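2024-03-11 09:14:02 DEBUG pipeline.ingest accepted 1 chain
2024-03-11 09:14:02 DEBUG pipeline.ingest length=229
2024-03-11 09:14:03 DEBUG pipeline.predict start
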Amino acid sequence: MITQIATFQLKATASLADLSSPASKVIREFLQAQLATPGAHHAYYGQYIEKPDMVIIFVNWESADDHKKFTSSPDYQNHTTHLLAIASPTTPPTTLHVPFTPTSDITPALGAHPSVGATEIVFFYFPSTLTPAAKSSIMASVDKMRPVMERSESLCVYDGWALEMEVPSPVTTEGEEHCQVFVNVVGWVDVDAHMRFQASEDFGSNIHHLLGITEMRHTEFFHAKLIKV
């Protein structure tokens, strides 16, 4: 199984938690069309808590090829037209396909776990020229943080590298217009639980494992209260 992660900016302010709102209806119809496609399993969507004009969508697919088949269908073209009508033209939408570990089903962190009330999502950006040896070194640093996360109030933790090798870089760096993306998804009871972890001595004593990754060019992290379709 693989997870499609899509983000886009809303053209106008909207509350997606209001399922009757025009924006929420458009997104739900788009995702319902995907769920009616062979290979699609689960779909969730929501807004960044820190930046409500940004939308994030998660869809679990049997494979990336199953998603590609959907994107070539008339249904996709029809629903994409409606989706683009609510999206801001100034911020290009992004789509990633991520095979997560330790399991490919990340729905517990998205809200399937009964105690998850907030989902933390982190995008780590690296040069597209990253070598296998450098990637192994990065993962060794990430592995040093895993016991720290296990000791925290986190309820479930997943991570993985996006299959896309040349994602447009969110930060302009000469000679590095594209990047690879490592994604971390964590389920928390609420945002306060995550903030307590970040303020803890355990976090402060170990975050250098991540901050010391010299190949890392940029990070984006935010929280979302996700809605299941």
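2024-03-11 09:14:41 DEBUG pipeline.report Residues 171 and 189 are 32 Å apart (CA to CA).
2024-03-11 09:14:41 DEBUG pipeline.predict end
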